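explain this chain.
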Amino acid sequence: MSTVAVLKGGRSLERQVSLQSGARVEDALERLGHDVHGIDVGHDLVDRLRGLRPDVCFVALHGRDGEDGTVQELLEILGLPYTGSGVSACIRCTDKVLAKHHLVDAGIPTPPFFAFTETAFKQLGAADALGEIEERLGFPIVVKPADQGSALGIRIARSAAEVPAALVAAFSYSGKVLLERHVEGRDLAVSVLDGAALPVVEAVPHDSDAYDFEARYEIGRTSFFCPAELPAEATTRAQELAVQVNDLLGCRDVARIDLMYDADGGLHVLEANVIPGLTQTSLLPQAADAAGIGFDELIGRIVEMALQPA
């Protein structure tokens, strides 16, 4: 068995979700017989890892510093194997604008969008172009921070009057925002494990028309269906798209691709997540379970992949 450092918590806005994921990972690793050390990531991370010298680090950090390549860069410097994607894939996926440009360039269906920094609005007059943006995208428009997860800071503007407040909300989370055509449809997620797509999960929030932060993490706020009840061709296509996006963005070991399925049967890729949640309501464990992979086995396989020579 291996000495495993579980990196969790940190200082991002998704700290509490990360702590939940990390705790479940620690329990699973202990059941598997590993020597487990949970580390709430802070200023002493490098010193703690130098002292421990784990065989592998399980990255259960969500949000900034955990999913954007920062901690991965540190682990590379220290020469420590770690779970999940490498630095470059983390950078590509965390920046939703960069990821969407990759999708567009590769011909992968994704909702039309525009993106601007706060500086562009304050100093380059981007706000004066909102009318043209709204005309090009049509309403509703999804306004979201370019580099946050868990649906933090996302608003749906259904009229021009709602756009300014949505921008203010998004800019409170990030210096760059994404304005994206809203796709009415069903929220789907396809997790990719070791290059293969798992069953499709559909999330159906009870009290909201958006799969927001509360709907994601409060037990009882959302119903999940896995495998999702879709036409066979839609299931196949969603899984194919997920693997294509996973490979295009350079994801490694495990990732989750979020999509929308519209009323006409069209699929639209929204984003890729390099460190999928592992909480009780998270989608990756549900997809693995539907594929006959229990939670402990899932965690064990992720660790084994990280320990394989590059």
Remarks:
- The chain is about 40% helix and 25% strand.
- The two ends are 20 Å apart (CA to CA).
- The mean pLDDT is 92.
